[in-house]
TrEMBL record:
PANTHER family found in the cross-reference section: XYLOGLUCAN ENDOTRANSGLUCOSYLASE/HYDROLASE PROTEIN 8-RELATED
Post-translational modification: Contains at least one intrachain disulfide bond essential for its enzymatic activity.
Descriptive protein name: Xyloglucan endotransglucosylase/hydrolase
Superkingdom as given in the UniProt entry: Eukaryota
SUPFAM superfamilies per UniProt: Concanavalin A-like lectins/glucanases
Enzyme Commission (EC) number: 2.4.1.207
Compartments where found: Secreted, Cell wall; Secreted, Extracellular space, Apoplast
Function: Catalyzes xyloglucan endohydrolysis (XEH) and/or endotransglycosylation (XET). Cleaves and religates xyloglucan polymers, an essential constituent of the primary cell wall, and thereby participates in cell wall construction of growing tissues.
Homology family: Belongs to the glycosyl hydrolase 16 family.
InterPro entries from the UniProt entry: Beta-glucanase-like (IPR000757), Beta-glucanase/XTH (IPR044791), ConA-like_dom_sf (IPR013320), GH16_AS (IPR008263), XET_C (IPR010713), XTH (IPR016455)
Segments forming domain GH16: 1-201
Pfam families given in the database record: Glyco_hydro_16, XET_C
């Protein structure tokens, strides 16, 4: 039976990733084990994994843009390349100086998203590196912040809800300007006098089932540590930690938005019963 690593094995950026655009806006440190993304009024930048993956555990240590970061978005996500795409998102929404970052998560299945949840973090994510992780297997998708589960998206295919299981995904990250929506719905604009905006990364970790873009199944299905029975659900301690996040730090959950969604989505009802 697979055993989860106590600590993810970090590797240099270039082993698994390549810059996606604006190569001159990425700076490398410590032999490529740390990088910084830069955003100015001309462009942002980003990177993507070389490989595509069907299921796995993916994590990154990120130190977010400090100071006045209003209008900026730092994203860390998995996405397939098809029109009816699957996607698993961390999006860090910047704010005016002194106001907390908002962490937005979303899950797209078969091209359908609109499953936003938003939380405040219980620390200042600009002061130091923190770990942001995604566990994705056939049973659930779990978002972690420093090993604390902040969201679970269960496989509810039996309820008619699509679940990402047959489209491989690449891992992406980007720093970009989204002041048309990111901060207070677009009311707060990016202050370019504060540019360049810098997000720092280290701890580049992928432990997934690597496959071609066209792959429909994982050849090692059921054989990896993140596939085992103990990872098909949260344990009791993790459920308590998730309840703590929901009660103390959640500021928006699409499952509770009756104005936008008069009928609760089936996966929300199951989540309530967990």
């Amino acid at each position: 039976m697979g055993v989860p690593p106590r600590r993810p094995v970090a590797v240099p950026f270039g082993r698994n990733y390549v810059p996606t655009w604006a190569f001159d806006h990425i700076k490398y440190y410590n032999g490529g084990s740390q990088i910084e993304l830069y955003l100015d009024k001309y462009t942002g930048t980003g990177f993507q994994s070389k490989g595509s993956y069907l299921f796995g555990h993916f994590s990154m240590q990120i130190k977010l843009v400090p100071g006045d970061s209003a209008g900026t978005v730092t994203a860390f996500y998995l996405s397939s390349q098809n029109s009816e795409h699957d996607e698993i998102d961390f999006e860090f929404l910047g704010n005016r100086t002194g106001q907390p970052y908002i962490l937005q998560t979303n899950v797209f299945t078969g091209g359908k998203g609109d499953r936003e949840q938003r939380i405040y973090l219980w620390f200042d994510p600009t002061k130091d590196y923190h770990s942001y992780s995604i566990l994705w297997n056939l049973y659930q998708i779990v978002f972690f912040v420093d090993d604390v589960p902040i969201r679970v998206f269960k496989n509810c295919k039996d309820l008619g809800v699509r679940f990402p299981f047959n489209q491989s995904m690449k891992l992406y990250s980007s720093l970009w300007n989204a002041d048309d929506w990111a901060t207070r719905g677009g009311l707060e604009k990016t202050d370019w006098s504060k540019a360049p905006f810098v997000a720092a990364y280290k701890g580049f970790h992928i432990d997934g089932c690597e496959s071609s873009v066209e792959a429909k199944f994982c050849a090692t299905q059921g054989k990896r540590w993140w596939d085992q029975k103990e990872f098909q659900d949260l344990d009791s301690y993790q459920w308590r930690r998730l309840a703590w996040v929901r009660s103390k730090y959640t500021i928006y959950n699409y499952c509770d938005d009756r104005k936008r969604y008069p009928i609760m989505s089936p996966e929300c009802k199951r989540d309530r019963d967990a």
